[in-house]
Amino acid sequence: MSTHGMTTDDLTRPAGTPAPAPDSTLRPTLPGRWYTDPELFAREQARVLEATWCCAVRGDDVAEPGAFRRVQVGRESVLVVRGRDGRLRAFLNVCRHRGALLCTEEAGRTRRTLRCPYHAWTYGLDGALVGAPNLRAMTDADRAAHGLVPVALREWLGYAWVCAAADPPSFEGEVVGAVGERLGDPAAIEGYGAERLALGRRIRYDVRANWKLVVENFMECYHCATIHPELTGVLPEFARGVATQSAVGHGAEFAPGAAGFTVDGGAGFPALPGVDPGRDRRYFAVTVPPTTFLNLVPDHVILHRMTPLAVDRTVVECDWLYAPEVVAADADLSRSVELFHRVNLQDFAACERCQPGMGSRAYAAGGVLVPVEHHLAGFHDWVRNRLGEP
Amino acid sequence: MSTHGMTTDDLTRPAGTPAPAPDSTLRPTLPGRWYTDPELFAREQARVLEATWCCAVRGDDVAEPGAFRRVQVGRESVLVVRGRDGRLRAFLNVCRHRGALLCTEEAGRTRRTLRCPYHAWTYGLDGALVGAPNLRAMTDADRAAHGLVPVALREWLGYAWVCAAADPPSFEGEVVGAVGERLGDPAAIEGYGAERLALGRRIRYDVRANWKLVVENFMECYHCATIHPELTGVLPEFARGVATQSAVGHGAEFAPGAAGFTVDGGAGFPALPGVDPGRDRRYFAVTVPPTTFLNLVPDHVILHRMTPLAVDRTVVECDWLYAPEVVAADADLSRSVELFHRVNLQDFAACERCQPGMGSRAYAAGGVLVPVEHHLAGFHDWVRNRLGEP
Amino acid sequence: MSTHGMTTDDLTRPAGTPAPAPDSTLRPTLPGRWYTDPELFAREQARVLEATWCCAVRGDDVAEPGAFRRVQVGRESVLVVRGRDGRLRAFLNVCRHRGALLCTEEAGRTRRTLRCPYHAWTYGLDGALVGAPNLRAMTDADRAAHGLVPVALREWLGYAWVCAAADPPSFEGEVVGAVGERLGDPAAIEGYGAERLALGRRIRYDVRANWKLVVENFMECYHCATIHPELTGVLPEFARGVATQSAVGHGAEFAPGAAGFTVDGGAGFPALPGVDPGRDRRYFAVTVPPTTFLNLVPDHVILHRMTPLAVDRTVVECDWLYAPEVVAADADLSRSVELFHRVNLQDFAACERCQPGMGSRAYAAGGVLVPVEHHLAGFHDWVRNRLGEP
After folding, report:
1. Is Isomerase among this UniProt entry's keywords (chains A, B, C) (predicted)?
2. Which of A4, A8, A357 sits opposite C100 (nearest CB)?
3. Which domains does chain C have, with CATH numbers?
């Protein structure tokens, strides 16, 4: 990759905005085939999507004992279920007898057991095999050997996070630590009290693009001036292209005239009680690779969960979370939701526009990262390392 | 595969029901990839589906000279046609000149020849090339060298059975013998006089599952108690999970209160004239691998033909056959047909529920067969042997 | 491949019709997998479709400065754009920054630049990078290194012909020379003045067949008697199966009763001014492999452009071109257009009928060419040579 001595704009930086990258040259992206090769996607499913932690289910969506939801994690159908003891657990959604899916609905509620509808093998909500017709004298060892395959689960920010791998990496290191590191303070996330918030709105997007294009898009703001007029209206520094994610602890400041993080800059809701005053007019974005994005503003939290379904298709589910009293009062969330909903539509259209270009000879060796995008190389290295690719 | 000392239920077996399998441990199924791998399916097409006999066309459906039907056999489009001499013959449905399909309709009737609609090469109903525009002085050797490629055909039970392989296995051994062996008497099948019956109803099912899941489902009755309330109502022993197919010559006895093999146990039709009195209140099921199933009850015969179209898609056509006078009298077949139509829908839903589980890590090494399913291992070995896989 | 001593019909040939092929035996076609194997198609995309010249865009469709059209060439999206200097140029339609498609519309018009809608990298109509937000001090070398990737373009017959390869073959040799050689006179094509004609009608066909089946169909006339009643009505010699393309300089003569090249033989329009009197009642067909076909009749020119999209799918766009005054007068073109539109529908149905036969065992070694098709072997050799296949 040759470089060309380009330098960043000589921005007039207000206090608190990140310094430009010291190395201002063009750097390479991943080659195009990383976004188009089905075999590479298959390896990503095994070594990235199934091998890392992903944010799977909002705890409130499975509030009652016996409540369950089904989610796709890499190639696996995973069942998240609330036990009679109130604990959340996750299992591969596959009967150990002949492989039928235990649940085919997206969500539901059972009483005391999960019963396979094919041959009636029956499992407790803790996954143990508790019954099978025509089989008697089943020992505890038998039950254990043919119980549902457990999936690692951790609750954080009000969500069940799961890892489909048999040997999951450290949740503290990979998720909690990454968020704290990005925000510059391990405790900063706690102020938003995400686990106590209520779901105000959920929108699902079906994006015809590789999941890494969606991650890269979320991580940089070089495109903000071009495609996000509403967002740059509220966060003027975004018009200069510098992503908040490229600097530790930085949050983008609201425009002087913006009363809140809404599509027209009008007032939102009172700041969440634990939000630090230094953050009460700031926007923070955090990427938890591979598939979770967090947006933090004073009065709400936005959480994106991605589900890569094919090398060129990714489903994204976006939750808008508010103080419970805001949701309970049936407050008008529309201007608040509309801002990031538009951002999502603008971003996903851009990702879909890139997908067909990935297969071109013009992109065989990839494209280039300008200085305000250099931090994307960290994500590329992260993926490369997990795939064991040079 | 570890085993776990499980034993079958201590069934109170009425006289005539099969003894439980002597070995009562759990045994392995095929690994999951056998149901999901497109390359393995491609080999199955070549070495199983095209290399064995399949039940292709009801003879009555091509009754007149020149009548033809088109069927899919593995990757091949096969034409079954009635000659002017009354004989049925089968050919690959491909013109030898430039490869056009001779017939694209499902069925039809021609007069004396099959004429390719592209360049008008013309074949006799015996497959011989009889004309080609602009070519003269065609010798008999020329005609023979460019006649339609013949496909082996045998008539049995009123159907044309075909084998797309150049060197077909013995029909007597693979088909007639297998049926006789299952029924415990080579002559037993003759009593139903299937070749003299009339088609009462035909239903086509498009099943989103691997063909082997459909075979396995048909071969075992462990699922009957869970998903087949109507069938176990008529055949109570099925509620205990023991498949008739696991014991030579066994037929399931009708419930004492059942007057016939109908959805509500109401009366059916008079027994077919040749049915042995010992079979006049019994149900027999026979699998003719890979793609044909027979159900024999006193007053009708049900025949399933499967056409595997993809690793995860199988079309099943089911014929209900009755005495000619029953069909001629326009008798009400609805309660009779409804019973196995419901069984089909219940079974195919179960197969479709298994298909997505086959790709899970939980099924990578396969699942387990309980003792009443142990005979499925024979089918697995049959497939393995034909594929040359360990 | 055995041959069989077949000979061509002993045609009573009128003066000027081509002599029958001296070698009258059957010759082999390509094997069936050449029409069904996705990997072979991928190689064709790289070594044939992207490596040769294809007729891409009618110049009049991008008449004004800044007008552009997007076309698919092999796997590449190519942009053909008219510069402010009036010149046509072509580029890979991919931004050099992060790979977004510059244009997703089929056609449009820009002012002075092509601006990527993702991050606003901006290119001149000559492809040079002229601007990128946040980057300053960009040298001419930088601009050149990250300009749009140019695609070779030549204008001929009123069309922009492009070659997506980095090192295109000679346009004069591959295209102009091939047309002259076929017509037997390098100047013959000039008489039709195709570059001065106006577009009367354009029809797009989506054909579910391999592109080579479409080429082969266009090159031979052995099928004309069977499927083209209207065409053989106007060109009676076509009923004998001899393609005009099998003999240098030969054009098929209109039927004595035909006043013009129309669906009913009624009068067309006055002959184009430059058409030689010897050609004023003759039809000439020219194949410019791989994807362009020309039909020349006294009063109009028909040009087919193929876009192979998959091993079994080909889009064909057909232009009917007339004298500008005919189109300007809004003359009734319907009987004129209808003739070849019917021929197209008849031909593409035949191609779609062949596609499923290509995968049969009956066609594994291919089919046969009769003497009036022998010249197709030249096309097969042409493809084989480019693929480096024996």
Report:
1. no
2. A357
3. 27-50+190-387 (3.90.380.10), 54-163 (2.102.10.10)
